[in-house]
Amino acid sequence: MRNYGSKLPNELAGAGSAEPEGIRKEASLGMRERRCELEAVSLGETRPRLVSINPINLSLHHVLGRVISMATNPLTPTEFTQIQTIIKQSQTDPTHNLTFQYVGLDDPDKEAVLSWHSSNQTTQLPPRRAFVITRINKQTHETIVDLSTSSVISSRVYTGTGYPLFTFEEQTAANLLPFKYAPFLESIRKRKLKLEEVVCSTYSVGWFGEERKKEKRELKLLCFYLDGTVSLYVRPIEGITVVVDLDEMKITKYSDRFIVPVPKVDGVEYQSSKQKPPFGPSVHAVTVAQPKGPGFKIDGHTIRWANWNFHLGFDVRAGPIISLASIYDVEKDEFRRVLYRGYVSEMFVPYMDPTEEWYYRTFFDSGEFGFGLSAVALEPMTDCPANAVFMDGYVAGQDGKPIQYPNLFCVFEKYAGDIMWRHTELAIPGQVIREVRPEVTLVVRMVSTVGNYDYIVDWEFKQSGSIKVGIGLTGVLEVKGASYTHTDQIKEEAYGTLLADYTLGIYHDHFLTYHLDLDVDGEQNSFVKTKLETKKITDHSSLRKSYWTVVKETAKTESDAKIKLGLKPAEFVVVNPNKKTSVGNNVGYRLIPGSITGPLLSDDDYPQIRAAFTNYNIMVTPYNKSEKWVGGVYADRSRGDDTLAAWSARNRNIENKDIVLWYTMGFHHVPCQEDFPVMPTLSGGFELRPTNFFSSNPVLKTRIPNPVHWPNCTST
Ligand SMILES: [Cu+2]
């Protein structure tokens, strides 16, 4: 392969150029060249309109002409409006300002959902209710609303610790306050910055041992300097701290401690239209073509594809919620239950700079900012491939009115040239047997942009029975302005990597905790640790001195299932102890972890007390409807008293019970120069894989899809 050196050869720098000789030779090895007249579409302003297969935009509620009402469906726009009316009518003093902080489905009882589902939806639908958190007169109110009777089922003032999610509206209002605040205007003047080029952003303040009576619902603001770029997060105006009391909506504390240069504007641009040569190499246009259209069906929120059947919900806090996933077993001629519900329960992102302006940055992206609330519209052809179908979603605004999220999800069949299974048999004289099955999977995707970071959330269903859950980290780093222009100048702890002049990328973590309520062939499951242990051979019965074998251990209580990965080799299987295969193995699904990252903060550090749910990579609890958010229902300013760590301290019995698996995946992020000014996607994930669930390879009889006949193609 040609070594490109530091500069790209001209022929690689332009779109649609001929391949260099060396590349063509390699690419041509052992394959027939196919020349097609399929027109490559240039990616420009009108990109989504020019494709041969038009992206399909489907409203969540009117897909394929059918409307299926399901117990776990997210709230509809009509229901949001209904809830708004009910809550307003129930307000005792209408003069008080009322804000909707969280409006979501109040989970119907699992038993009722399952019986409704198993009766083929002929029995009565479980009651449809909403759980609503409002703020009225500086108090947090919890209300459960019944939608069928338009009534309030319960209502109470929450007096515990912590506060609900921030709304977009209150964050926007807070961001505007500094522009009318004289000390801030003076700080900007002192720095010789143009006020019209300053923008501010909101940051949760965490909890650092403050007394309850002194605590307020607050946000901190950080401001940035555009002045010639849209890449604001890499141009912080350091030294200033602004504290906003959200109930009063005013600045209550302000400090301006020092001045360092705003990181330079050169090299921070990421918009394609603003880039100047030299450009990177271009690749030939590529797409996925499905001449017969998507091979899946969406009925309401139920998605059916290949051997899978599942429900796709949406919550303002969690984002996508996969529920009632079952897989068709060809041998048994039935759908078998796998996953009752799966979603991101919390994302914890602590930064490692303990100085005055940075120490508090220990974010709970789901519980404070809303992973679903922060979802952004997916762009056809770039966020999702040509064959993707798009779905909209809805959230309640601060006033309770529904807000549409267009292109919230995309669903598509993914063919990335991978192999599902294969074998070439060369051992039979005179014969070559080759069997290959290409891997086609189904992906559900959402992107959440929480301030500077973009998280790509994928749920991928494989015909082999696996559910692969992916997370991609991209977007803009949260950087700190500093006086350094070279690492040689850094003589003290800088808490990060120098990425460019005056620009430090601060060390931090991303921890995601997934709620995985596996119901493997039913609710009654157990968690089995299949430990791999070395055995010594000392009796000279073999020329070998050792081997490894498996020792299975069923977790009886929650403490038996608290696992820090990476210490000992093991497999982690959720089995149904009441169901065996014909050869006697318990049917199961195992977790194949993708990350063995654990927290590095000390246990007594306040952020870690709040995020003690990250202390173990795996935990198992008995199903409990109220145990939904691992960081607590009220994550903002939480104190760790309502976390997974606290719930599991009860050490409940988990053997042969309806259990929930919690998996915490993490990334320690030491920023590097390649992450600047926008970060190439860093991917992680895990897999839930059938383990003695099927009697044999479930995709043995899967047929190869018919070849796609490309128009005007010739083979040579
Ligand atoms: Cu990061």
Automatic annotation (TrEMBL):
Domain Copper amine oxidase catalytic, residue spans: 287-700
A Pfam family of this chain: Cu_amine_oxidN3
InterPro entries for this protein: Cu_Am_Ox_Cu-bd, Cu_Am_ox_TPQ-bd, Cu_amine_oxidase, Cu_amine_oxidase_C, Cu_amine_oxidase_C_sf, Cu_amine_oxidase_N-reg, Cu_amine_oxidase_N2, Cu_amine_oxidase_N3
Cofactor note: Contains 1 topaquinone per subunit.
Cofactor(s) it depends on: Cu cation
Copper amine oxidase N3-terminal domain: residues covered: 164-262
PTM characteristics: Topaquinone (TPQ) is generated by copper-dependent autoxidation of a specific tyrosyl residue.
Positions of the catalytic residues: D365 (proton acceptor), Y453 (schiff-base intermediate with substrate)
Domain Copper amine oxidase N2-terminal: 73-157
UniProt-listed Enzyme Commission number(s): 1.4.3.-
Keyword Transferase: no
Enzyme class: oxidoreductase
GO annotation, biological process: amine metabolic process
UniProtKB keywords: Copper, Disulfide bond, Metal-binding, Oxidoreductase, TPQ
Modified residues (2',4',5'-topaquinone): Y453
Keyword DNA-binding: no
Region (Disordered): 1-28
Gene Ontology terms for molecular function: copper ion binding; primary methylamine oxidase activity; quinone binding
Annotated family: Belongs to the copper/topaquinone oxidase family.
PANTHER family per record: AMINE OXIDASE, COPPER AMINE OXIDASE
Name of the featured protein: Amine oxidase
Lineage: Eukaryota, Viridiplantae, Streptophyta, Embryophyta, Tracheophyta
